[in-house]
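Re: your question about ABC transporter ATP-binding protein

S., sorry for the slow reply, the queue was backed up all week. Below is exactly what I fed in.
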Amino acid sequence: MAPIVSVKDLTKTYTGGVSALKSVSLDIEEGEILALLGPNGAGKTTLISTICGMTMPSSGRITVGGHDTVRDYRKARDLIGLVPQEIWLEPFEKVHATVAFSRGLFGKRRDDAHIERVLRQLSLWDKRDAKVIELSGGMKRRVLIAKALSHEPRVLFLDEPTAGVDVELRKEMWETVRELKSRGVTIILTTHYIEEAEAMADRIGVIAHGQILLVEDKTALMQRLGAKRMEIELQERVTEIPQGLAAYDLALGDEGRRLVYTYDTQAERTGIGRLMNDLQSAGLAVRDVHTTQSSLEDIFVDMVKEDAA
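Result:
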């Protein structure tokens, strides 16, 4: 099956020579959630704006549902819903009218039942007759999502959708995104909240300096790049690591009361058994042991550091 969104060799250079995107290629499968991670200025918003037809590419080709976003702009754009970072809403318009008007902009026939479903899904139905200016910041962001869904798009772009939203509302919005996915909507999410990507995404894309560093299944990525860390609590404090343990590249922690051992989860052998034997041979008594897995944030930070080096 062809990808719902296909980006091939996309570049975007602004007047003055600033290169925001550098030969970006990316395929997005129908029905998936792709989280796009990257630091400020990485090119996330430029990439979304170009796919949505709001910014013209300098070179390369983009198709949405098989429609070229330049030659077939209207057909491609009809398939896309966009929730931007900025909250741009008519302050004195009522919620229901705001969302229904967006549907009309795409040439869709009036469908009060669909607008009601969208508003109920986003917990906005009770606010349908409220003016936008009367809403909280979180509710305004929900209105943006409702507007983006008003014309029944197949692809939804969420550009930092939970920025400035409290934790409880953020989790409610995660549930909304999962429900949209269950109905077959393809979702591309940019976020600064690593836990957001870790909780929701099927695949993770990392972008830095206008280039895609990788796009990979989230679980496979964490298995491939994630390291496990074992912390060994000692019964007695040590001032240095014994010479017999030098091969393990251990680190001292907690003022000598703890040894830290990092190992590759994909390696054929972790070396843990041998390490425990050698600890005993070195005269070190172990009080407790626990392990932790690298988070997606650890992996992301390491990748961006490597790219900047």
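The longest strand covers residues 19-28. Residues 78 and 154 are 9 Å apart (CA to CA).

Happy to talk it through on Thursday.
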